[in-house]
Specification:
The chain has 146 residues and is an alpha+beta fold. 38% of the residues lie in helices and 17% in strands.
Length: 146
C-alpha cells in the first residue's frame, strides 16, 4: 500500500503526504444486493488514520484537525468506510480520496463570519409578522363583558 497524497489547500499550501505506515486498511463483506459475489468478496474498505500520532501533520494542523473532526473521531482515529462499488480496488480509491478531502478541509483555518446588518426590508417583514401574530393571539382572548 502506498502513502496518501493530499492536494494543496488553505491549511496546507504544499499539500500533505501521509506515510503508508500511518494508514490502516481493513476489508470486510459489503451489505446489500450482489448475488453470490457479495458472499465471497471482501469489498468494503475501512481506511483509518490516527490524527494524534501521524507524522503527516504539524502541531497546528493536528490541533485544527482534531477540533474540526471531533464529532467523527473515535479517540483520535479518523475512519472512512466505503462500500459503494462491487470492486475492492474502486472502494480503496474512493476511501483514499475521501480521507484526503477530509484531511485537507480539516486543516484549513476557520473562515470568520463577516458581520452584516439586517436589510430594511427584512426588518419591516419581521415587524409585520410580529404584529400579525399579536393580532391573532389578541383575537383568541375571551371577549370583554361591556
Amino acid at each position: 500500500m502506498d502513502g496518501l497524497r493530499v492536494t494543496p489547500g488553505p491549511g496546507a499550501p504544499r499539500g500533505l503526504t501521509v506515510p503508508a505506515g500511518d494508514l490502516v486498511e481493513r476489508f470486510s463483506r459489503s451489505s446489500g444486493p450482489g448475488g453470490q459475489h457479495v458472499n465471497t468478496a471482501d469489498s468494503r474498505v475501512q481506511l483509518s488514520i490516527d490524527l494524534g500520532t501521524t507524522t503527516a501533520l504539524d502541531e497546528v494542523q493536528r490541533e485544527q484537525a482534531l477540533r474540526t473532526l471531533a464529532p467523527r473521531l473515535s479517540g483520535t482515529v479518523l475512519t472512512v468506510s466505503v462500500e459503494e462499488n462491487r470492486s475492492q480496488r474502486r472502494n480503496r480509491a474512493t476511501a483514499r480520496q475521501r480521507l484526503g478531502e477530509l484531511l485537507r478541509d480539516a486543516v484549513a483555518p476557520p473562515v470568520a463570519r463577516r458581520a452584516t446588518r439586517p436589510t430594511r426590508g427584512s426588518q419591516r417583514r419581521r415587524v409585520r409578522h410580529e404584529r400579525r401574530r399579536a393580532e391573532i393571539k389578541r383575537n383568541r382572548r375571551r371577549p370583554d363583558h361591556d
